[in-house]
Amino acid sequence: MRHNRIVLLGFSGAGKSTVARKIASHCNFSVLDTDKMLEERYKISVYDIFEKYGENVFRQLEYKILVKALQQDNVVIATGGGAPCFFDSMKLINEVAFSIYIEMAPKSLALRLLHAKVTRPLTKHKTEEELVAFVTEQMEERKHIYKQAHLTVKGENFDLQDVLQNLIIQNSVKL
Ligand code: S3P
């Protein structure tokens, strides 16, 4: 089976968007970002959806957007950190795409989130210690989902060539 959809998974701050752009430029694929698609489609920021309507509404809209993204061809899709963890999203992703989990230690993620320019609703107003505790706890809940990805790579020392070789072997990318 030839995968012409690659889906990047991982916690906020793991570098999904950056990796998506790098892979896409090598494969000549387009980049899709589920958070951006959602913001464009509903004309409201992710932050404001959480604030005004709560997480449940966000998860429902996020799921719809993910389904739409997974109908596109020749794409690298950067998902929101929670996207694969709700409804049947992970199963769906693995059925129609090649999934890559960017794994990173909670401490590294917490530091990156602490210095991030974008304010994320789930991590706002948290000190470094609170962030480490929060990320560690969330990771415990989410990692059994993330680990279902077809490929797991380390975010701290991400090796693009290694990933591209894997994609060639998996038949996602032509030589
Ligand atoms: C979330 C991650 C965010 C965004 C939303 C919820 C999560 O995306 O979808 O704030 O539940 O982990 P990023 O992973 O791009 O930060």
Structure description:
The protein is α/β, with parallel strands linked by helices. It has one domain (about 5-170): P-loop containing nucleotide triphosphate hydrolases (Rossmann fold), CATH 3.40.50. The protein is about 50% helix and about 15% strand. It contains eight helices and five strands; from the N terminus they run E-H-E-H-H-H-E-H-E-H-H-E-H. It has a five-stranded parallel β-sheet, sandwiched between helices. Helix 3 packs across helix 4 and helix 6 packs across helix 7 (about 130-145). The longest helix has 19 residues, at about 130-145. The model has no long low-confidence stretch (mean pLDDT about 95). The structure holds shikimate-3-phosphate. The site of shikimate-3-phosphate (S3P) has 9 residues, from loops. Shikimate-3-phosphate binds near residues 12, 46 and 81.
